[in-house]
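dumping the sequnces here before i forget
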Amino acid sequence: MTLFRLNDHIHFMNLTVQLAKFTLENNETPVACIFVNKKNKNIISYGMNKTNENLNGISHAEFIAIDKLINDKNIDYNFNDIIVYVTVEPCIMCASALKQLGINYIVFGCGNERFGGNGTVLSIHNDNSTINESSSSMTIIPGILRKECIFLLRLFYYKENDTAPTPRSKKNRNLDKNEFPNIDWNLYLNELQFKKLFGHENLNNFKIKNDINECQNINWDLFENNEITAKREVNIIEYLDSLIKETNPNNNYKN
Amino acid sequence: MVKKEKNPIKIDYENCIVEGCLVQVKNNIQGNNPNLIKVWTIDINPKDSGSVIAFIRKYLQKNDPVTFTHVKRIQPFKEKNILKIILCSAQLHDENSRLLLENLLNGYNNHVNIENESIEVNDKINDNKNRRKPLPKAFQFNNLDCIYSIPLNLPPTKDIMIEWSKKFWPLNWCGNPNDQILNDMEFNINWIRSHLKNISKLASELGIQNTNKKSIPVVTSFVSPLDPTDIITTIDERENLNPLDHSIMCGIKRVSELERSRRIQNKQQDVNYLCLNFDVYTTHEPCSMCSMALIHSRIKRLIFIKPMKKTGCLKPDSGDGYCMQDNKNLNSKYEVFQWIGGEFQDIPTVSDKICC
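..and the predicted 3d for all of it:
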């Protein structure tokens, strides 16, 4: 088994945030996910929230990625070997879906206060009623690029108001770039698990509910709205597609 | 809305049973654990109560998201000769709003004093003509605090109400709130019976095939609120390609596919939003994924036949007792009933390790 370090998680979450940003153009809530094979660090699927486009409440990013994976005949996969990177904590429905499939490794950015199923509202990963096909225990890693993921949601709600029947004047709205809420690590991890994941040097952040040292400064490059970023957004999907093609061992893709 | 005694539907309010065949499934844990909210209170002199109530009506009550109809707003403390009075909920002004409320109270009292003085002066000049009605008098207050918690809703019984009144804050008994909820619901028992007949027949047919094939005999119908003859029936398809294709998930997807093609063809003017206000009929109590998917889909009501003791997520005594349709941590709800009538109970059993 390949070892995943914090840098790997940050790398993959960086891509996931870029993918989520893409959904803003389509007026979807900016949530995205990427599936990575634990064994070789290959990206094997990805998904973006499509609830508005599909006219249903279940086309969450995770379901789009699962559909894509299942329908891709060229990829060998085992649900037990997948790491899910997702910008927002899976909702109860998605947490249940992932567990029922046997996916047991979830990394996310920010918590989902309304519907979170991996600690915030319910802890589906630890329950008895959701039957898990895999025998190994679940790994839940919260708080990777948390501020970036929260900021994506803020961008969405800031933007959304323009289309409201009576939009509030811009003066009264503010896009807060400085203040971020604390993270209650206790909802997702105990102190021991936290220390094992993020090291002794981060332990104080657990106590004071701060982001880990590696994620305290937000990477504004991801959000700058210039032409280059716009190009990069289009390319993130092409980039992920090409990665999936290149690294897939069967390589049976017809061009 | 009909009065309870005039409702043509027979309802056993005590046991929450409709027409002897549908039992309401809800979170009954709330019975002993109230949903509490913090409130702002002040102590006042009993003679000022009228002025304080006038102040609350004018400046706080209108905007407060919490209604206090089930609460006695004033609590007397005879030994101290004071009244403790609820100003507003912490949902209107949060726990850090002391200064704001202090300014509001003091500002009001100053304003009242000045206005009343000017009225008095005016009255002396104008004799009896153009007399303005004096404002309610200013009042003194002490102990502006946000330490009391009150139950957001009434409990189901008067006994618990009395217990809560002692423990938290005096409440008003206006009957079990669930009685009114049940009374206001609409039931077409013949329709319900026909939908259940349809899905249980299909499930039984699948159950017979089941001996050869691995399919799971769970069936669901989605019924549109716009047209009750528009019925979408789906079966469990997890053995085909997608292990998540439980019958409810298939139904939600089917509803949205039909809606998409309808919008493309622009056939109908009325369009569905998600599964808003749909009635859903299913053979087996759904799992955590499906019960939550129904929350996301904004359905109105689910009726199921067979409980799933281990994997079900609706009944308080099923699985982890989530009561997903009525979970206080989720801000959206739907009605749930279990069919307990004599018919349809012979539908195929599903292993208790299966999430339906």
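The mean pLDDT of chain A is 88.
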